[in-house]
Amino acid sequence: MRSDTTVIVLDQHALVRTGLRAFFNTLYGIRITEDFRSAGALLEHLQDHHADVVVLDCFQGEHAAKAQALLQAIQHRSHCRLVVFSSDLTSSARAMCIAAGADAYVGKCEVLDTLASTVRSVVEMSRPRIPGAGIDFLASALHELTPREKEVMQLVADGLCTTQIAKALDRATSTVSAQKWSGLRKLQVSSENEFLKLLPPDFRWPLH
Q1: Residue 46 reports pLDDT greater than 60
Q2: What is the pLDDT of residues 56-89, one digit of tens each?
Q3: In a domain, 206, yes or no
Q4: Across all residues in the chain, what is the average pLDDT?
Q5: The domain spanning residue 118 has which CATH number?
Q6: What are the distances in angstroms from CA 102 to CA 6, 59, 105, 192?
Q7: Which domain covers residue 193, as residue numbers?
Q8: DSSP string spanning the chain?
Q9: What's the total number of domains in the chain?
Q10: Same domain assignment for residues 60 and 91
Q11: Within a 10 A sphere around the Cβ of 23, how many other Cβ atoms?
Q12: What is the CATH number of the domain that holds 169?
């Protein structure tokens, strides 16, 4: 991973912002450059500054439509990766954020190591490249996954977060996170969002 990965944090709670700074400052290769309480301040900052990743709680007590609009507004101003870090653990919130362009969704109930590994993973991945073969490519590429990676990716498609998948499969969250990102790489997509775009409603998963 590059040694200069820069992160901006958006969260209305000062304790969360301070805690994330303290945690990331202990890690090699990740540096929080700014943190913001309000979305307006973040968007103004992004007009003249760049970061590799924005880690944000985009709900902040607001309606889901405003969270979706915020994610899209950030994308219009920056090419940074978006990692939603939220206490809303519902599958609908996660699905909405992924559909709106978030590269990953991490629940605040998860250990911070999961957030750190997610930040590293989204930075290391190349920009989205949807193969021209579309659904035929997906059906073929799924055979390249290990059985455990395939189990994880099926649950990702069902809208489950890493913690929920770990509980369903009785695995450590760090193991599930590694299997998920390995699966995404083999499918040649750079985020859960791009993976979900490949899946038609009637897609049939290979049996073996």
Answers
A1: yes
A2: 998 755 567 788 888 989 988 888 899 999 988 8
A3: no
A4: 82
A5: 3.40.50.2300
A6: 17, 13, 7, 8
A7: 135-197
A8: --TTEEEEEE-S-HHHHHHHHHHHTTSTTEEEEEEESSHHHHHHHHTT---SEEEE---TTS-HHHHHHHHHHHHHH---EEEEEES---HHHHHHHHHTT-SEEEETTS-HHHHHHHHHHHHHSPSP---TTTHHHHHHHGGGS-HHHHHHHHHHHTT--HHHHHHHHT--HHHHHHHHHHHHHHTT-SSHHHHHHT--TT------
A9: 2
A10: yes
A11: 15
A12: 1.10.10.10
In this structure, are 159 and 104 located in the same domain? Answer: no
Cα distance between residue 46 and residue 32, in whole Å: 14
Cβ(66)–Cβ(20) below 8 Å = no
Q: How does residue 8 score in pLDDT terms, banded at 50, 70 and 90?
A: very high
Which of 83, 100, 124 is at the close of a domain? 124
Residues 95 and 90: their CA atoms lie apart, in Å, by 9
Distance CA 17, CA 34 (A): 10
Cβ atoms 104, 192 nearer than 8 A? yes
Residue whose entry in the numeric block shows the structure tokens 């994610």: 71
Per-residue pLDDT tens digits for 113-154: 889 988 988 887 654 444 444 555 666 677 788 889 989 988
Instruction: Count other Cβ atoms within 10 Å, centred on residue 84.
Output: 27
